[in-house]
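Reminder to self: tokens first, then the designed residues, so the page reads top to bottom the way the pipeline ran.
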């Protein structure tokens, strides 16, 4: 463990959720905690001074939907490389998805991945567990054993849990265990080859598209089941306006505990970006339309979406180089989320830093039963520094993920993460 430094951030703009305007302050950090936050301080002689002019200091992010592919998919990513990618993107906590090989569906596999994380990862790594054994949709996974190891989220992510009777029974059990469901919503029969949305682009490329209703039907079904079971539910990676409105309708009723997430790519890209069969725009749920982009961004601002989550889905270059229907779904997101959200929305006044901190740092932690990490005196200094005036080029050299499957590959975007700290340790400094 490196020695815990005393740090003095001079003249930084401080950002937090629910703070209107960022304020310029000096921030003293010692033993991994904020000791004093005030303007015009004198730096202690033993402190290392970090010039903060032009930089923002804010809570580090937390991503409640990542695929680290371990065990079984280590050619794409593993817990160590995934954690390095997270740090590179200003993310200090994650929830891994259980669609690994073998699946994370019992105490033994949960213990294996959490032990590995404790050994190799400098960030907070949580795992979700499967709803059904092997994600086959038949028998329930070992909820109790997983719960005893700290698993809170249950999901068959990558697929819907097909049989509603199985899901309903699972919900009745899980609520007794204090666990909740995260639903990947899709009717497989409607989704076809799961390559892109139904519409003009699908016709042009000659591929059977997945209509929005393939997703919307299951959003409603799963919330309805949770309502009947009296169980909490989380809806993953919503991509359509009507799907979002369905969630809003249930939230307005107020008699079922629903949370929901949206991914950055569903706010930024549309099916036409696929262009000439570019598999860096292939994900599931697929990219939809500009109208959906705009509606979803509004939903992130107003809180229909409690959180932003990337669905970080690494694949090897070989896999992504296959033809469009054969290539696997998904793009990486951990390294690009904060910078791209700044470049596309915050720098244009369409979103505030407070919005981002709330949706990508505080709320995902709350959903997982963790405390947020606000910038307050006495609080834990789990923070990032962001330079709005700098740029980031997402080159192969820049990226720490094993994977390169992102539409931002070799693009230069506004903004740069300069510094990441967690548990008294400086994890990144540029
Ligand atoms: Zn996923």
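Designed residues (430 positions):
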């Amino acid at each position: 463990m490196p020695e815990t430094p005393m740090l003095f951030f001079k003249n930084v703009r401080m950002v937090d959720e629910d703070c209107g305007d960022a304020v310029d302050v000096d921030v003293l950090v010692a033993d991994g905690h904020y000791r004093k936050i005030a303007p015009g301080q004198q730096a202690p002689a033993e402190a290392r001074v970090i010039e903060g002019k032009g930089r923002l200091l804010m809570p580090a992010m937390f991503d409640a939907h990542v695929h680290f592919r371990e065990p079984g998919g280590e050619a794409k990513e593993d817990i160590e490389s995934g954690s390095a990618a997270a740090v590179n993107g200003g993310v200090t906590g994650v929830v891994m998805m259980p669609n690994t090989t073998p699946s994370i569906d019992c105490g033994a596999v949960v213990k294996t991945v959490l032990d590995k994380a404790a050994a190799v990862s400098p960030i907070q790594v949580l795992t979700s567990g499967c709803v059904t054994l092997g994600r086959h949709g038949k028998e329930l996974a070992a909820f109790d054993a997983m719960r005893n190891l700290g698993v809170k989220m249950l999901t068959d992510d990558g697929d819907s849990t097909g049989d509603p009777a199985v899901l309903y029974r699972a919900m009745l059990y899980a609520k007794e265990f204090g666990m909740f469901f995260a639903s990947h919503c899709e009717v497989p029969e409607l989704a076809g080859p799961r390559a892109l949305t139904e519409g003009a682009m699908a016709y042009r490329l000659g591929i059977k598209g997945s209509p929005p209703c393939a997703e919307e039907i299951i959003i409603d079904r799963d919330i309805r089941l949770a309502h009947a079971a009296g169980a909490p539910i989380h809806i993953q990676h919503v991509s359509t306006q009507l799907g979002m409105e369905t969630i809003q309708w249930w939230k307005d009723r107020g008699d079922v505990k629903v949370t929901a997430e949206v991914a950055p790519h569903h706010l930024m890209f549309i099916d036409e970006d696929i262009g000439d069969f570019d598999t860096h725009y292939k994900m599931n749920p697929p990219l939809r339309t500009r109208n959906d982009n705009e509606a979803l961004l509004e939903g992130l601002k107003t809180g229909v979406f409690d959180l932003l989550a990337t669905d970080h889905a690494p694949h090897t270059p070989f896999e992504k180089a296959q033809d469009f229907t054969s290539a696997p779904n998904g793009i990486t997101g951990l390294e690009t989320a904060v910078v791209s959200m700044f470049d596309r929305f915050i720098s244009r006044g369409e979103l505030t830093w407070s919005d981002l901190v709330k949706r990508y740092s505080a709320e995902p932690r709350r959903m997982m039963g963790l405390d947020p990490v606000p910038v307050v005196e006495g609080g834990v200094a789990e923070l990032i520094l962001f330079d709005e005036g700098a740029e980031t080029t997402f080159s192969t050299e820049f990226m720490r993920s094993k994977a390169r499957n992102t539409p931002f590959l070799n693009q230069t975007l506004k903004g740069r993460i300069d510094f990441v700290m967690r548990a008294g340790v400086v994890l990144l400094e540029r």
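The chain has two domains: 7-58+377-429, 60-367.
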